[in-house]
Design brief:
single chain, 3-stranded antiparallel sheet, disordered N terminus, 18 strands, elongated, binds adenosine-5'-triphosphate, microtubule binding, alpha+beta, disordered C terminus, Kinesin
Length: 625
Amino acid sequence: MELLVVENERLKQELKACKTSLLQEAPPPACTTTDSFAAELCSLRILRYQSRSPAPHLSLSSPTLSISLSLSSLSVQYVTEIVEVESTESQQAVAEAQAKSVALQEQLSLQRQLLRELETQLHDSQRTSTQLRAQILVYEGEMERAQGQLEAEMQNLEEEKNRVIEEAFIRAESEMKAVHENLAGVRMNLLTLQPALRTLTCDYNCLKRQVQDFPFMLEKAITEAKQEICQVIGEVSSANQELLRKYKREMNLRKKCHNELVRIKGNIRVFCRVRPVCRGEHDSAENMVSFDPDDDALLYLSNKVKLMTFELDKVFHPQATQEEVFQEVQSLVTSCIDGFNVCIFAYGQTGSGKTYTMEGVAKDPGINQRALRLLFSEVTEKAPDWDFKITVSMVEIYNETLRNLLGDIQGEKLDIKMNPDGSGQLYVPGLTEFTVQSPEDINRVFELGHMNRATACTNLNEHSSRSHALLIITVAGVNSSTGHRTQGKLNLVDLAGSERIAKSGAEGSRLREAQCINKSLSALGDVINALRSRHSHVPFRNSRLTYLLSDSLSGDSKTLMMVQVSPLVSNMSESVCSLKFAQRVRTIELGNATRRQWENSSTSSSPTHDSVEVTHTHTHAPWRE
Ligand SMILES: Nc1ncnc2c1ncn2[C@@H]1O[C@H](COP(=O)(O)OP(=O)(O)OP(=O)(O)O)[C@@H](O)[C@H]1O
């Protein structure tokens, strides 16, 4: 590219140097003076600058001179001829050159601006480069640090690896040792097992032979066994026949023996219960009553002078619970489901615990509630094979008068009559029979009975001491498949107090009460006596109590007398009296086994069977003496 540079500083300097050397070294042309030559030189203007030629050179011109300068070796060619200065072409060329120069100047200014921008950019780039270099230094620092850490980490890992390898090696060594030891043990075992293996192999072969032979042996054995079994079955069946025959004979014998036993022993049991000393009782009971540790049928009573021994069927000590007492009587209770008539009497002086044993207290009920609940649960269990109906009546006998306790009319008096149906059975017209269908009914019965008894008298405690309370439970059942019927009756009787009021000189109503109580208790003793002695006549009619219970005291019926005893010394004589009564009941000598009239009375309609009428006044009970 060819570029005309006019104002270039370097060129200016070179030109200045050229002019100076031209002035000093070149001789002015002949036609001019030194001064005008100098002036001529000063007016020289750069015409052209060639920078790309092999030797850069400068073309200068003035009106009179045309100079070409080689910039490396300055050589001057003198213009020897004066050229036409202001020719049209030159002026035109000058004009063109000036126009060109203007264009170039503009271009130059543009280039300069460009240059400035480029310089600015260069500055920016240099600044950026400086920043980048600083950043590179930071990065290099960080890289060095990271590399340091990496190296340390690698060092650690290397150490860890070595440690783990070492540990693994040690472990492997010890395991290897153990394996070696095991191996040695196994080798030893192997050595000892070899003979065993030989024996086993031998056994195996032997067994194998046996197994092969087994089916034949089995078949043979089965055939033999079959023959033997057939033979044994034959023998057993004939033995069975014989046994069955013997069993039937034994059963008949047993039944006969049982009947004989019942006939001899009677169905009357006597228990005794000694109540504890109650809170607030200051009387000393020490050593008055004692028990035999080896025989629960013995009871000892001692006063200052003598020791009395009583033998009964069972004695309950003061700590005996209601449950324990009930355990002993529950078989009697349930026997009425099988059609037996049962009587349980509580006998004893006032305050000896009769009501406690029969009724109990709310938290700990006595025989009455427990019996009814047991019967209810037993008959419920027997359903649907059996259809049972349990009915309950409650009566009291006060001054020989029978009162309905479950009726709507309070204190309603009842009478005992012969059933007009001709069955010979007694019945009580108007007696309320409450059918128990749920356990709740049981509670209702007792509540109602208790309420009626309490409202009919002014002092329940006194009243209950002087009247007999009877709970009569009838259990009637029908077997749904056979149609077989049973009917049993359970009479639970809380007797009036047995103390001898008459002896203490009671008068008026108290005397009458005492007479009535003595009469009925005496009649009860007489009936029991007659029953056990197999008397031909049993005096049921001598009291309301015995008359009402006649069907439950006769036949196969069972009777339990629970004699209650107070442990207090002050009650000693009454306790002795009660126990003597109990023992007498138990040890009545058996008379001739004659057929009892009442046995007929229950099946006959004749009212004359029980013919003894009460004709004398009972101020005292000789039977109890
Ligand atoms: N086994 C016993 N355990 C705890 N307390 C008893 C026991 N027997 C009786 N008692 C208590 O003794 C007291 C008298 O008992 P209970 O009323 O039953 O005598 P009772 O012979 O029925 O008298 P009554 O002839 O006047 O009716 C009552 O307070 C009763 O709670």
